[in-house]
Amino acid sequence: MLYAIQDIIQGVAKGDFLAISKSITHLENQEQGSAEFVKNITPNKIPVAGITGPPGAGKSTLIAGLIRVLVDQGKKVAVLSVDPSSILHNGALLGDRIRMRDWYLNPSVYIRSLASRGHLGGLIKSIGDIVKLVQASGFDFVILETVGVGQSEVQVAKVAFPTILVLVPEAGDEIQMMKSGLFEVANIFVVNKSDRPEAQKFVNHLRQSLSERVGPRTELVQTTASTGDGVAELVGVINSFYEN
Ligand SMILES: Nc1nc2c(ncn2[C@@H]2O[C@H](COP(=O)(O)OP(=O)(O)OP(=O)(O)O)[C@@H](O)[C@H]2O)c(=O)[nH]1
Ligand SMILES: [Mg+2]
């Protein structure tokens, strides 16, 4: 058993996707020896961008766009998707699979879904360790996606930096966000679907709310994920959180 773990650690360090998958499963299941396993990991200081937001905001489209920009820059990217429903074959995820299809066989892109299995806090417990492992696996950039808006998203946000809240210009949405804990912890506010006519009004309103927010630095970026507009700018803003 120990020998196998040693093998896996070596594979992980070399960026071997199979070894990475095996070790993530090990951590996800909180198997015996997990704690010891994590101790041997030295994470690299790379961006771990958390992406969250309401259903249909365009998170998956945006992530596909981010992957495109990063791969074009020669970066190796890991995408971890936290699915609170734990139903891995539902329509939404299948849709994501199709959207992400271009990237599944790309050697620069590693994509992994993590189901929460309905154990309250079960996944959340190991997500920090899983991210730490991925940070040590030869990637340049990690994207951590959570589906929906709720308490688990706020907890996942603590593992990621910067945390990106994807919003759409729809009446009422912003007020809803302000009530959620995410509004307080997000670092980057993305207004996606900026091709919509009501986008500018929404942006102005959000900018006003952010100027009144007390707390750490926030940025606002407008995107149209479906065309790729603003996505390269978003990468730049994410990276800027790691410059100093
Ligand atoms: N007009 C417009 N449509 C967009 C834009 N970005 C995404 N969409 C569309 O919005 C819909 C939802 O996009 P997804 O990327 O699946 O959104 P999501 O946030 O991943 O949704 P869930 O996974 O269900 O939470 C799709 O039909 C997209 O094509 C955009 O910038 N403008
Ligand atoms: Mg999605």
Architecture per CATH nomenclature, i.e. the level-2 architecture = 3-Layer(aba) Sandwich
CATH class assignment: Alpha Beta
- The span between the termini is 42 Å
Low-pLDDT stretches: 86-92, 118-122
Global outline: globular
Number of strands: 7
Q: What is the makeup of the main sheet?
A: 7 strands, parallel
Tell me, rounded to a whole number, the average pLDDT: 82
SS strand fraction: 15-25%
Strand order of the largest sheet: 3-2-4-1-5-6-7
CATH fold category name = Rossmann fold
- Class derived from helix and strand content: alpha/beta
Count of structural domains:
1
* Strand and helix order: HHHEHEHEHEHEHHEHEH
Q: What small ligands are held by the chains? A: guanosine-5'-triphosphate, magnesium ion
- In DSSP terms (H or I, runs of 4 or more residues), the helix count works out at 11
The helix content, as a percent range, equals 40-55%
Q: What is the CA-based Rg, rounded?
A: 18 Å
CATH homologous superfamily (4th level) name:
P-loop containing nucleotide triphosphate hydrolases
Description of the molecule:
- The protein has 244 residues and is an alpha/beta fold.
- It has one domain: Rossmann fold.
- Helix content is 47%, strand content 16%.
- It has 11 helices and 7 strands.
- It has helices at 2-13, 17-28, 34-39, 59-72, 91-104, 122-134, 151-159, 173-179, 182-185, 199-212, 231-240; strands spanning 48-52, 77-83, 109-115, 141-146, 163-167, 188-191, 219-222.
- Strands 3-2-4-1-5-6-7 form a 7-stranded parallel β-sheet, sandwiched between helices.
- Helix 2 (17-28) runs antiparallel to helix 6 and helix 4 (59-72) packs parallel to helix 5.
- The termini are far apart.
- The model is unreliable at 86-92 and 118-122 (pLDDT under 50).
- Guanosine-5'-triphosphate is lined by residues 55-61, 92, 147, 192-193, 195, 224-226.
